[in-house]
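call fold(seq) -> C-alpha cells
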Amino acid sequence: MAVVLSAMILGAVFQLVFAQNRMYGHQQGLADARQTLRAAGSLLAWELRHLSAAGGDIYAIGADSVSVRSFDGAGVVCRKRVTDGKYGLYSTTGDIAAGDSALVYLILSNRTADDVWRTVSIQQVNTAAGFLMNTACAIWPGPLSIEMAVELGISANADTAGMRVGAPLRTFHRRTYRMIQRNDKWWLGVRQGDGSYQLLTGPLQAGDGLELRYMDAAGASTTVPANVRAVEFVLRSESQIPRTPQDVQEDSVVMRVQLRG
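ret:
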C-alpha cells in the first residue's frame, strides 16, 4: 500500500511539474515574441515620426519596405572657407560621413525673403589640419576648437553665401527597411545607401511579418511618396525559443504614425 500510494503521489507531483514547465515555456516564448514587437515597433515609429514627405524625406514606398532620408548627425559651423567649400564644425553629434546629404541654414541678405534650409552634400570629412584649416573656431570667444571639417558639394560659392558662423548643419543617410531572410528565418533589416542589409530584430512571421500602408492628408490610401502623411504598419513576430516545432509563440501589433509634415 505504501509503495502504491508513494507512486500515486510522485505521479501527481511529476504531472504538476510538467504542467508548470510547459506553462513557463509558453510564457517565455510569448515574452520573446513581444520583445521583438516592442523593438521593431519603436524603431519604425521613431524613424517615421521624423519624416516630412512634402520635404522629400521619403524616397520609395512599398507594401513590405520603405526607403527614407534618415537624420543622422548635426553640427554648428564655427569656421568657413568658402573659396573651396570647406567648413569647420563644432558641437557635432551622431554620424557624419562622406556621401551624406545635408541641410544647412542660410540667412539671406534680402530682408524681403525668408531664411532657408538649403540642400547640399558631404563630399569629404576630415580634420581641420587635414584640410589645412585653422583649428580654432572663428569669432567665438574662448579656446573652442574645430571637432570636424567637411567639404560641401556646391555648384557655386553663392550656394552657401548665407551660411554664417553659428549656422546649424544637419546630415542624413538614405535608409531602407524591409524583411530579410537569414538561416530559414525572417527578420527586420536595414540597408544604408546601396550597402548590404543588416539584421535589426526578429524573427518575424514568414510572408506577412511586415505590412505597410500609406495614407494621404484625407486619410485615403496613396502610392505617391510625396503625398504620404501617415503610415500604418503591422508587425507579426514569432519566438526564437520554441519548445517543439508545433509550439512557436506568435504575436502581432498594429501602429499608425503621423508624419512630421
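Helices lie at 2-49.
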